[in-house]
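Field reference: sequence -> structure
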Amino acid sequence: MEANTLYIKNMVCRRCILVVGQVFEGQGITPHSVELGVVTLPRPLSAEELSRVRQQLESYGFELIDDKHSRLLEQIRVGIIEYVHQPDRQERQNLSDYLQDKCRTEYSSLSKLFTEMKGISIERYYIAQRVELVKELLTYDELTVSEIAYKLHYSSVAHLSAQFKSQTGMSPTQFKQLQGRKRQPLDEI
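Structure field:
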């Protein structure tokens, strides 16, 4: 790990990037970049600065990742979330190639590590993330199930419905009809 690069767990969205950036700015440290799971700094932090940043991050539900396997696991998790939320990328590159490029590690090693540490395969995690995105789109009530299937590059509405039902126990239409639609935060999947 480069001394100027910190890895942060539980970053899942643009708001997370904003909050993490503000934590560093609040400590008088202007990062070179803040991305999902990674902060690049202009210089290494002192032990005292690192302690303050760690404490501040934890107050927002984030964690600094210290060991190599946990950092790689977080890179995989963040990569899957990015991939799911960029459906056009799915037409150009499959998930295994995307993760292999992003993590600079053979996919078989990534898959083994992820399954060992998370207790779920990359494919099952990917499907869970896709279903959460489908739930989000259904909650907005702006697109039909057919339009969602097309937008997210499902092979068919039936394929989307089957994945959705296997994850939630109900069809997308049944979910849409629920009053208090239940979604999980991305960092809890």
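Note: The beta strands are 5-9, 33-35, 38-40, 63-65.
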